Amino acid sequence: MIRRPYGRVYMDDFYATRVGGTPVGSVVDAVALDAYPLEDGTPEDSFALIEKAQAILDAHEVTAPIWNVEINYGVLGGAAATTYHYSARKQASYVVRNDVLDASAGVRRV
Question: How far apart are the C-alpha atoms of 104 and 101, rounded to whole Å?
Fold first, then answer.
């Protein structure tokens, strides 16, 4: 999960790892990201998280495609798992914006 800074630190540390001298990132087929933003976030915030993840991958020369494997908006998280309620119109706009932004970021699968 990359929505919080500690997740991005973990991602950076992971892709900096070498096993037997081989960079971990050179042997992955795809990079799976949970690019959902904080509970009041938007598709544009998700896009910003993908850009931050891409910068980490670029720094470690990881060329595997990105897959956005979880899309959530309005989820508070934690034990309560509280969610915001969005109108059908807003839900539709989030789906379209999310897909367009993921495509523009080069995300291969959503």
Answer: 5
